What we know:
Chain A is an alpha+beta fold. Chain A is 33% helix and 25% strand.
Amino acid sequence: MxxxxxHRAGSVKEALSLLEAADDGKFIAGGQTLIPAxxxxxxxxxxxxxxxHIADMKTIAVAGKTVTIGAGITHAEVAVNSEIMAVCPAxxxxxxxxxxxxxxxxxxxGGSLANNDPAADYPAAMLALDAxxxxxxxxxxxAEFFTGLFETALNEDELITAIxxxxxxxxxxxxxxxxxxxYAMAGVFIAKNGETLRAAVxxxxxxxxxxxxxxxxxxxxxxxxAGLQDVAVAADDLMTDIHASADYRASLIVAMAxxxxxxxxx
Amino acid sequence: xxDVTMTVNGQTVSGxxxxxxxxxxxxxxxxxxxxxxxxxxxxxxxxxxxxxDGKSVKxxxxxxxxxxxxAITTIEGLADGEALHPVQTAFKEHHGLQCGFCTxxxxxxxxDIIRRHPEGLNEKTVREExxxxxxxxxxxxxxxxxxxxxxxxxxxDSTKAA
Lengths: 266, 162
């Protein structure tokens, strides 16, 4: 790892001014992706601005069906939060499947979204839940936020402070994990609210997280695992890598969607 | 160089580190606490597991400066003088190790697992919870047995105390 100058921010405002003053600075939250990337020199920022001590970014609020989660909340905290569990247990289930316990103690929601790894879990939930990504400057709909592999709508000097969504009537998440990395080889988050239904897929798309029209159409007709029995997902825009072919991922998406809908139906 | 101060195993310690110094390097090289091991150094194996502010984390995947002001517990801080921690005792009794390289990380992960499951543990839960720790000798069987036994011993103790 190249040497780096460390700064600790106590507030969102301070974090932004520290970043602005840095030559080639980067925000660091839990660092579970950034530190490994710096070790391999895939990332070599001149300065790190640590967000882990900003109290304003570490709150969870559930008011009726409206869920607001601070960007600094860790995966471990989401996994066991009783307020979120009461309105959207699928999100707690998803958080509990990220990495391992030690990683979940450090890794944060905001860090995961800003990184937008094509195999990360949270992007699927955000897209299916039609969540709003709140930054220091504006609010961005999830559908506009994820713009490609490791790419988001965030500006260089913009910081995610929280996310917000309306808890749906039903939600579920199915994930096939790579046994070594524990990232999704296919993860499907399904959320249903009245007639509105979204099925978002992570780990499989050539261009990152996406909504599956095939899964959504089938579940709109029959919201059950049986309703997905004859569904085929096109492999055209899916990823092929050393772990799995596009065709295998297409098959996994349907299998994971079945698990997700079974969970949603409880 | 940056000055850092943290509490390690109950003692306040200070040192001067580079921004890029990993927490595990600070613990091992500056403080001489070599019980915390560096296995893969890519967050996979868990040999470097310690507790920061009471929670298990991988000390190879964070910088020493990130831990400035924190309370750290390493394997050296678990025993009470000559008396082993119940998890250490259970690993010994159930032969939860062969070469011993992964053991400090296993034990630090195990104490955290037991803390988070006051309701008690079963084999399935322990195996899932150990996903961040790799052992290449034992096949995990005796490690799992040791953790369940330690959990039972610690719960029995706290019931007695109450």
